[in-house]
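re the bet — no i am not wrong, look at it urself. input seq straight from the record:
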Amino acid sequence: MPSRRQTVATLAGVLSAHVVSAQTDESYSSGALGAAPYSTFVSTNATPPLWNHVLPINDTIKPQLTSGLIFIGPRGTATHQAAPYIYNQTGELVWDGSLDGYTQTMAYSVQQYRNKSVLAIWQGQFNAGGYGSGYNLLLNETYQVVGNVTTDNLAGIGADIHEFKITSNNTALLTAYNATQLDLTSYEGSADGYILTSMYQEIDIATGASLFTWNSLDHVDPNECYVSPGSSGTQSLPWDYFHINSVDKDSKGNYLVSSRHCHTAYYIDGTNGAIMWKLGGKNSSFTGEGSEFYFQHDARFHANDTQVSIFDNGATSWETSEATARGLLIDLNYSNMTATLAAVAIPYYNLTVAESQGNVQIQENGNMMIGWGQNPWLGEHNSEGTPLWAAQFGVGDVQSYRAHRSIWNGYPTTLPSFVIQSNGSTTGYASWNGATEMAVWELLGSNDASAVVSLANTSAVGIFETNFTIPSSPSYSYYQVRALDSREFSLGYSNFISSSNDTVLPPAATQKPAVGAANATTVASSASSQATGSSSASTSGAGTTKRASLLVTISAVITACLCAS
């Protein structure tokens, strides 16, 4: 295993080869930086996809944006590391899920469970046919798993990749795919064929029990859809005639289901599974310009169930039906059964379809947060469809199933990462994967543990990794960093690192981060810092009195810790 010093040297080489600034860069767009540019760091092995801000945010646009961080799950053959990621608005990394062991994901978002925010992450096996079988993990604000939700009583078929949504009743909506043998001769298939039925369940998260199960083959004839068996319909490649990819639930207890291959959003009775109306497709219950879309994703109710948002892909890998993908907001008039386009958003970068994936998230202020699916782009449009900002996170085969903006307060139980490099001058590098409330890094020095001295404060706002010069005089045998929030509450301490970077000692017991009451006081002020990542913090060394009292408290413990080495 390489030493810490060797690892740092390797990372430094990678850094110089791959990192470019997070701004508009023509070399990025042209592919000159590779199919999937990514960032590297000195203090951690994180390698998140790098953003290219093609439509940057200016001072006019900032007030039009809601608060929150950005959640995407980059994947695809060109992606350096497929995993769930959290970014701030400027494209700076906040959390790299691969460092916590999470891999390729699709259904991934912040949700509310029992009035607390949880990070929901799908994990499992992908099928070449475009579906999967696995489970959905719920992570609390300390990134600890507090729930594991999958299907119930489906003969070993796990939760599919496409959907996981927690309802206001603390139940979960999830999808599943099941291959069934069926005579397909009436559908231009074989007599001993296999069909892929789309299913969804509503699960009681607390017990894991299914409260409702729906099977597409019980309610939707395959002739209603647009995909023929072709070369599929076999046991190894069942015919995916329906292809469910989202489920929503309204205030009446009924469900809205998106069928990609039927070009239809189905409204389903929550008591018996009967179809109450259809939006789009061959037999739409509605007329009007809002009733047409193709190979769509992510159908959601809004405005007391009188509006539906949909990501209109306009194509699939074998067929193109429109000139471009679109984000749609559709008004539904149930009196005359008309569907009217309230807003249409088209890609900022160029007019092109999205052959797979994609979503539209309606923000509290009406803005449309859009992930463009197979195309490695994300951005935001106002309520009228005008683009506000746009960024790309790859050039080649880099994708993200959805993109969301949400408020998230993360308090990792891991220690902050801290590394020292010497190359003419001595520089410290600090980061903390998943910590959202950080405002300042405080550098501490110690010689013989008779005292721990506060050396300097450096702003960490909006930056994943912070670097700072280690003073040459006076010098210390050991260094450490402490993370402070915007109110100068202590969030956590790194290990002690020797000035030669070859000895690592744990922080003192009284220095371990206290997740809970102290952190709770900072939540109210966190939203504004998540909006654009542009807030400022003092670097003047304020809080000296607080630090002085801390040093007295921990001195004896530090002595024991250092002397024991």
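see?? Helices lie at 4-18, 26-30, 517-520, 526-532, 544-563. told u. also The domain at 417-563 is CATH 2.60.40.10 (Immunoglobulin-like). so pay up
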